[in-house]
Amino acid sequence: MAGGGIPIGGGNKEYPGNLTPFVTITCIVAAMGGLIFGYDIGISGGVTSMDPFLKKFFPAVYRKKNKDKSTNQYCQYDSQTLTMFTSSLYLAALLSSLVASTITRRFGRKLSMLFGGLLFLVGALINGFANHVWMLIVGRILLGFGIGFANQAVPLYLSEMAPYKYRGALNIGFQLSITIGILVANVLNYFFAKIKGGWGWRLSLGGAMVPALIITIGSLVLPDTPNSMIERGDRDGAKAQLKRIRGIEDVDEEFNDLVAASEASMQVENPWRNLLQRKYRPQLTMAVLIPFFQQFTGINVIMFYAPVLFNSIGFKDDASLMSAVITGVVNVVATCVSIYGVDKWGRRALFLEGGAQMLICQVAVAAAIGAKFGTSGNPGNLPEWYAIVVVLFICIYVAGFAWSWGPLGWLVPSEIFPLEIRSAAQSVNVSVNMLFTFLVAQVFLIMLCHMKFGLFLFFAFFVLVMSIYVFFLLPETKGIPIEEMDRVWKSHPFWSRFVEHGDHGNGVEMGKGAPKNV
């Protein structure tokens, strides 16, 4: 096997192949699956700060926000029903990602993307025409099912399709789509909020049909990955596909390694039970802790509730949506920095730099908001320069996240799993991500109400912990072919004790038979 010129098994080999236009276009189309997730994150925060929407569905929140001036600014949006509207989606995504694992493994990555697009489409329609809270919740649950399928399949598809030298950049296309989805949603919220008659929120929610159609149509025209075709028994088709995506005829070495990986994976009757084997402990730990840490950076708090947050710290509705647009632009630009640098500087460097940047900004924001709002939540007249300073620090924080934990939180888990546990492990990754997104969304407004500016310090503590974790326990995966990834664990000072040398599911000795139980 091969890997970026690093000797393996006594050889110094690399898979030949080019970054072909076919692969580039394919990965761009597949990455559009991130649009549905991003659009939803952006739209839900904006819609929940629109008065006509609150008046129709959440009148108690509307009254608290507009009429009851005695309400602490930190607590004006504290409503369990409003929170359930936002976070029901993530619970649904968690459940559907578990089902998606089986579909992705047995029927290919494309079918999961198709299901994801169709479910999201129906959910968007129901939300756009909603007249009751229950319709909103049902629509959100269908959106969640769609996101669970798409988030399970798209990162795997990208990691398998991309040449290993460009895997980081092409995979981060998924995160770039998420950030573009957030930005588009913020811009639309800004303009739809101005519509006379107060029905702009219907366009915001119904507009989710557009990204849903993109991923639905995209999944119908995309080719399948060679890995998936081999897994389902179509070896001739897979070899032809591999020649096409690599742009060369000589793909025998990579093809043979994919076949060996598939044969090893066929020996695994139950990938879920297999995940618990000792030799997969490093991958399982990453599949749980990376998405957990990603949610506890506090980013979704900023993105979900950027309009709400800016409104609470003294911006009016219009200005708060505009501030959310600003953070959205920063998010997109910084993700492009990650696409440029991930295969040059490596994953660890971006993780650690981004962590340091987020930590400093969270402490600064906590200090700035704490000094002005105290615990009463009443800032009096907030000077414009003060509000600008807070937004500036939040933007620097968003940039730090967008070139580190944002894209790498999806990239690293999708590239470290051997084929025999890949679908199951990716489902664990998505499920943990959605579970903690759900929990953070569920308790954020309550925490904001009770912890006030201390909430930023709460997340700053987790950023410190996750940076220490990356420094000591995350190996560098830059430039290593996806089917050769097991060697990073064998050479790691801590994880090597879990992975016996000469016993692994998808490496040099894979062709010798079934993986042994450790």
From TrEMBL:
The chain crosses the membrane at residues 19-39, 87-104, 111-130, 136-158, 170-193, 199-222, 284-308, 320-342, 349-373, 385-406, 427-447, 453-474. Pfam families: Sugar_tr (PF00083). SUPFAM superfamilies: MFS general substrate transporter. One of its GO terms (cellular component) is membrane. InterPro entries: MFS_dom (IPR020846), MFS_STP/MST-like_plant (IPR044778), MFS_sugar_transport-like (IPR005828), MFS_trans_sf (IPR036259), STP/PLT_plant (IPR045262), Sugar/inositol_transpt (IPR003663), Sugar_transporter_CS (IPR005829). Coiled coil: none annotated. It is a multi-pass membrane protein. CDD domains: MFS_STP (cd17361). It is found in: Membrane. Its main location: membrane. One of its GO terms (molecular function) is monosaccharide transmembrane transporter activity. Belongs to the major facilitator superfamily. Sugar transporter (TC 2.A.1.1) family. This is Putative major facilitator, sugar transporter, major facilitator superfamily. The lineage of its organism: Eukaryota, Viridiplantae, Streptophyta, Embryophyta, Tracheophyta.
